[in-house]
User: Which sequence fits this backbone?
């Protein structure tokens, strides 16, 4: 008889959930079995997870009944929403409601909610230092996740709140990597001043989540922040320069300038960096490096991540 505990993993075909699936599969004696949730079990990434040994099931965050079915019989669930697919905090809240209800109905013993700060606790809407976005948010993709925390607690779902960090992978595919300026020099443009930006290898997010499931439901109710390093823009530029084999200059712009860069979500990200800059002590303190390493002993620091992925960073 298979007495492994099933972990239902939302976002299994993505960065966070994928890290958790691989962390479980990498350790056959873990006592856990990954159930990968996806909207399309026939998609190549989903099929690959099945080939590696995950159970692949169909579920959609917008379809509550599909989540309840996918959570049934599981011990725990990893819950994440993808703001960047729709840019709607209201939709994230609705998806989080579906997740919390499904977790309650399935009687799960341990849930991880991938969350972020509700920045309005630091910057109320009437605070003019940054614009209010989408009517009632300062950093929409943070605020909705933080606002959703109570959806799990008020339903009595035993939940660990995982405070994630900026992925260094954003330097590869999210358009935040160094850009070549008119002078031909690569510039890392961030509105962080001389403050530290907690960062992590995206897949280590899921690998830390594995450490939380391993530690067990005793961690329910706790808020756990993770990061693989806290680096200033200058420190990241220096390390990027070494990895890319050419100078990378840190250009500290104002949040106003960043918000005006014109790409989709620039205003949200400008406010986000301003929040991280202006409340840097609070933001860094909860993202404890030693704690993250205890959860995931193979946690990558920035140099390690660069050695593995630096060659994927576009130099344009
Ligand atoms: N970029 C960063 O630096 C950063 C840092 C911290 C937190 N975050 C947060 O991370 C979240 C995204 O997580 P990620 O980076 O792991 O995602 P990702 O790699 O972009 O992949 C998105 C995942 O979400 C799943 N998904 C999306 N909509 C779904 C739906 N309606 N029903 C079921 N599954 C759905 C997709 O599954 P299928 O396509 O297979 O259905 C896929 O596995 C965002 O909300 C973002 O705010 C990002």
Assistant:
């Amino acid at each position: 008889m298979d007495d492994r505990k099933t972990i239902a993993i939302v976002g299994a075909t993505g960065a966070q959930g994928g890290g958790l699936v691989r962390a479980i599969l990498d350790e056959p004696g873990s006592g856990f079995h990954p159930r990968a949730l996806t909207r399309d079990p026939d998609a190549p990434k989903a099929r690959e997870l099945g080939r590696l040994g995950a159970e692949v099931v169909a579920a959609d965050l917008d379809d509550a009944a599909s989540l309840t079915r996918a959570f049934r019989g599981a011990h725990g669930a990893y819950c994440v929403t993808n703001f960047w697919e729709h840019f709607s905090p209201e939709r994230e809240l609705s998806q989080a409601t579906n997740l919390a209800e499904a977790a309650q109905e399935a009687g799960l013993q341990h849930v991880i909610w991938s969350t972020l700060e509700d920045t309005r606790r630091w910057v109320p809407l009437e605070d003019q230092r940054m614009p209010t976005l989408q009517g009632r948010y300062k950093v929409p993709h943070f605020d909705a996740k933080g606002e959703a925390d109570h959806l799990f607690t008020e339903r009595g779902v035993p939940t660990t709140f995982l405070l994630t960090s900026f992925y260094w992978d954003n330097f590869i595919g999210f358009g935040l990597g160094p850009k070549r300026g008119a002078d031909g020099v690569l510039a890392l443009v961030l509105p962080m001043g001389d403050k530290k930006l907690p960062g992590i290898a995206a897949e280590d997010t899921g690998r830390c989540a594995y450490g939380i499931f391993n530690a067990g439901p005793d961690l329910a109710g706790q808020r756990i922040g993770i990061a693989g390093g806290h680096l200033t823009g200058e420190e990241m530029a220096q390390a990027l320069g070494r990895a890319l084999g050419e100078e990378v200059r840190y250009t500290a712009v104002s949040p106003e300038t960043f918000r005006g860069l014109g790409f989709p979500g620039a205003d949200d990200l400008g406010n986000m960096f301003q929040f991280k800059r202006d409340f840097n002590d609070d933001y860094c303190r909860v993202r404890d490096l030693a704690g993250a390493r205890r959860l995931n002993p193979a946690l990558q620091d920035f140099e390690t991540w660069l050695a593995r992925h630096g060659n994927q960073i576009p130099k344009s």
Remarks:
- The chain has a mean pLDDT of 98.
- Residues 10-17, 38-40, 46, 59-62, 80-85, 141, 164, 166-167, 170, 174 surround NAP (CB under 6 Å).
